[in-house]
Each structure stands twice: as C-alpha cells, then as structure tokens.
C-alpha cells in the first residue's frame, strides 16, 4: 500500500455513487426536457450528496448525463474518470440496466455479478434502480426505461486493476458498498482480496499462491507455472486476513511467496506487515542466524543491519541456506497458528532481484 499523506484526508465518491447521480440527472432531464446542472442522491451511508454534472443533454427519446469521479485523497485508479448514464424510454415495463463502453463484462464465476452481465456490483445496481424508481414515482410515470452506464476511459483504466485476472473484460467495474471512498481504506483492499479468492475458488483452484506485491508475484508465477492465473493473489500487507479467507473459502494449500523484509515479520507471527506498524526485528534475525550456525561477528553485523534484505544478502553470501529454510518454516508455522491449522502451507523466500533463497512446507504444524 502507498504511504498515507499527513493531515486530514478528503473523502471521495465511488463509481457506483457517480453512476447513480448521473442516472438521476439523465432521467430527470428525460422527463422534464430540461438539462440538469446538478444531481442529489441518497447514499448507502445514510446521507445525501449533491454532484455537479459535467454535461447533460436531451435528444429525442434519450437523455445523457455525465459526472467526473472525485475519489478525494484516495489514490484510486478511477479518480477523474468520466461516468456517463444514458437513459431512454423502453417498450418493456420496468427498468433495464446495462453497461456500455468502458464498463467491463463478467466472464468468470465467483463474482457477485452473474457471467455475461455488466460488471455493475449489487449495491450500485440497487442504488441506481431505487433512485430511478423514486424519480419515476415522483413524476407519476409508469413507462419502462433503459439505463446504460458508460466510462469512456474504462478499458484503459482497467489495465491498472485486477479486472482482467478476475475475468472482467472490456473495462472497469462499477463498485461501492457505501457510496463514499474513505482515503487509503483497508476495507477496499480487503474486498479485492476476497473477490480474487472467490474467483480462484470458482475456477476450481484448491491451491492458492499469495504474494506481497508485483515482484514477488513474478517469482511465484515462475515457481508454479502449472497453476492458472486465478491462483495468484496479491495480499499486500494483509497476510493474516488473506490466510483466513483462503481457509474460509476452502483452499487446501496456500503457498506464500515473498522477500526478506515482510516475511521476516511473518516469521515472528506478525500478520499485518506494513512498514509503519511492524518494523523489522534485527534481534530476531540474529537469533535465527545464530541457530543456523552464524558466528558472533556475523550475528553482531546482523544486529546492526539497516534492512532485512541486507541480512539476507549477508547470509546468502556465506552460504547459510538453513537460515532461509528456518525463516520459511517459521512463516509456515505462524500461518498455521493464525488459521488454526487445517491447510497445507509452504513458504518461499526470494531476493529483491528475484533470486531464490530457500523454502519450507508444513501441514497442520508438522513439517
């Protein structure tokens, strides 16, 4: 995760809230024939929010409104994206909701949206429908309507997300359970982990490979070439959470692949490994080095080291492979303790350059 800037952070709005607000403006314009400059909707967090429309126009039997997504101070890939809603009269009764250009289409099981449908998640769907129903009722209209949500830059934005791996093709997802974006929210990251594991499980995976980032994932893919892409999940700093979700969703085996910095913390039983909340414990690394046969001079050097990666380089240069095997085993034991056993866990350690250092495997606390 990125470093959180100092000071009070500004909240933003989800793509779901923006799509709902754009729909509110477009439908109102379609009914009244008057373009709307703003749109007020009720959010799932039980408060109203007013959005300024970027554009709104009525053409015959269709009205289109757009809103620029403001994610506040959150480093969101969709910040600044144009969210468009086109609403037209339909001969069919009720409300038809679909995705247009830049909104992804679901192609894999395991997501909260059925295969073949636009990647508009359940809460945004409910928000859009409820808002539209309220407006139709307000004006006493019983005609059917069709709503199409589009994001012109969606396909390009989606390249910065996990959508492709999750089987969401052609654009972004319309998301949000609260309507607001809390800057640097751990909830959003955890939600993406749950979704990734669900897709893996729905794809038939029983062996999951969890990594702390892009570099470690590249190592993992080389190590497990036989596994499908759905089996690889970036857990970031949320080791304990990902392990528990893996067991909860029925994974039989979990492979942890990472580097010295974060995994030296996991080896101690630390399951949230952000640098701010869990600094590297060099005394612990020195103890492991001592049990691996390091002499007093090397042990003292380890205690004075600046980074865990530096410690790894010291031990690798002297050929202490048992040091990495022991660290890996400690990671496995800590993982099994975290989930109360019941799965097979293996751990592999790599350098920042992608060089293999060592591994270990444990099943229910017995290696």
Automatic annotation (TrEMBL):
Reactions mediated catalytically: Co-precorrin-5B + S-adenosyl-L-methionine = Co-precorrin-6A + S-adenosyl-L-homocysteine
Protein's name according to its UniProt entry: Cobalt-precorrin-5B C(1)-methyltransferase
Organism listed in the record: Bacillus salipaludis
Alphabetical GO biological process terms: anaerobic cobalamin biosynthetic process; methylation
UniProt xrefs under Gene3D superfamilies: CbiD-like
Enzyme Commission numbers on file: 2.1.1.195
Similarity comment text for this entry: Belongs to the CbiD family.
GO MF, one annotated term: methyltransferase activity
Keyword presence, Methyltransferase: yes
NCBIfam families listed in its UniProt record: cbiD (TIGR00312), PRK00075.1-1 (NF000849)
Alphabetical list of SUPFAM superfamilies matching this protein: CbiD-like
KW S-adenosyl-L-methionine (keyword) present: yes
Designated gene of the protein: cbiD
Pathways per UniProt: Cofactor biosynthesis; adenosylcobalamin biosynthesis; cob(II)yrinate a,c-diamide from sirohydrochlorin (anaerobic route): step 6/10
């Amino acid at each position: 995760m990125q470093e959180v800037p100092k000071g009070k952070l500004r909240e933003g709005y989800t793509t779901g809230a923006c799509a709902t607000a754009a729909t509110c403006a477009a439908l109102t314009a379609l009914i009244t024939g008057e373009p709307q400059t703003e749109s007020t909707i009720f959010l799932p967090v039980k408060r109203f929010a007013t959005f300024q429309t970027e554009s709104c126009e009525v053409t015959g039997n269709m009205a289109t409104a757009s809103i620029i997504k403001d994610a506040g101070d959150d480093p969101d890939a969709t910040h600044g994206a144009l969210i468009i809603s086109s609403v037209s009269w339909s001969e069919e009764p009720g409300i038809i909701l679909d995705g247009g250009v830049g909104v992804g289409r679901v192609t894999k099981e395991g997501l909260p949206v059925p295969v073949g449908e636009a990647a508009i998640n359940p809460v945004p769907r409910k928000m859009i429908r409820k808002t539209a129903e309220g407006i139709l009722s307000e004006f006493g209209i019983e005609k059917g309507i069709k709503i199409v949500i589009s994001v012109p830059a969606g396909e390009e934005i989606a390249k910065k997300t996990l959508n492709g791996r999750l089987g969401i093709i052609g654009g972004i997802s319309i998301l949000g359970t609260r309507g607001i974006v809390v800057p640097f929210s751990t909830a959003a990251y955890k939600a993406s982990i749950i979704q990734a594991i669900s897709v893996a499980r729905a794809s038939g995976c029983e062996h999951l490979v969890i990594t702390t980032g892009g570099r470690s994932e590249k190592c993992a893919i080389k190590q497990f070439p036989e596994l499908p892409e759905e089996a690889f999940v970036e857990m970031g700093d949320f080791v304990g959470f990902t392990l528990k979700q893996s067991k909860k969703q029925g994974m039989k085996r979990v492979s942890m692949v990472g580097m010295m910095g974060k995994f030296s913390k996991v080896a101690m039983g630390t399951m949230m490994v952000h640098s701010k909340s869990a600094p590297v414990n060099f005394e612990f690394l020195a103890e492991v080095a001592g049990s691996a046969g390091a002499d007093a001079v090397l042990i003292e050097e380890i205690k004075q080291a600046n980074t865990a990666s530096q410690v790894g380089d010291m031990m690798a240069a002297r050929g202490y492979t048992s040091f990495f095997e022991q660290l890996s085993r400690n990671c496995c034991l800590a993982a099994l303790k975290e989930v109360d056993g019941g799965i097979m866990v293996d751990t592999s350690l790599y350098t920042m350059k992608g060089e293999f250092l060592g591994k270990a495997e444990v099943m229910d606390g017995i290696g």
